[in-house]
Amino acid sequence: MTDGVKPLQPQQSSNATSSSSLSTPPPPHTQDVEHGVSETSPLYHRNLTDFVAPQKITSISIVFSTIVIFTICTIVLTLFLHGLYEKKKHQLIREGLVWTNLSPSSQCLRYNTQEYAAELAGVPIDGNMRQWCEEKQITIHGIEFKTPAYCTIDVDKSAATVRVYGHWAVDSDETSCKTLWEDFRDKGCVFKGFRCIEARMGNYQLPWDNWREMCFMTLADYDGHHFDHLDSCEFGIFTLAWGVCPKMRRTMEMLSDDKVAAIGKEVIAKLARIPNK
């Protein structure tokens, strides 16, 4: 045998199984076949163009998320800035509004209460004219009114003008609306414990469309007796008829409320039959 030449190893037959092949597990597909499992998808993509690398998918997700977040932030910021703009605009318009031509009405609403009206200047001609009127405060005779009692809008189509008016019910010592009773007439006792007194209401302002309310709310003082309200009101004649006879007051106070009410109805019925002098 020549030095440096390795002897030839005998070839192993194909049927022989090496120890290394016994320790190596069969491929997955072989295991599935052995266990009767049929694969429905290949282990590798047949079309390499359909396969997207995981890193590329992650990059697309990041870009898409960034766009969505940016869009949401832009919308929120736009709405916030628009709200600030509208609030500032609303404040500037409100500060520019002024009540002008404040004047009392010729008619009294009730005793010691008169209606006042004023025109609102500087109001924009839009759909919120009534709202601008209702939000504007005013001070009348030292009394601050947060809002008018009601607002009216006068549209003049011929002159293409729109006027907004506010109205308030003011009860601050309105002397022109302090009606009083004058020309008292004693009609005598018409029922046991009752005396009929007629009077005429003075200091009344025209028109006469609310005379009944003014009548019942006007206080009366006669012969040392005070009356918070009247028993009856008629146009031209106003009647006081409740326990005026002093000697019978104690007797009337001892009666029950039902008895007093029944007597009162009878008195009013008798008063209606008394002729005017």
TrEMBL record:
Compositional bias annotation for Low complexity: 9-23
Membrane-spanning residues: 60-85
Keywords: Membrane, Transmembrane, Transmembrane helix
Region (Disordered): 1-38
Keyword Transmembrane helix in annotation: yes
Name under which the protein is recorded: Uncharacterized protein
Organism encoding this protein: Armillaria tabescens (Ringless honey mushroom)
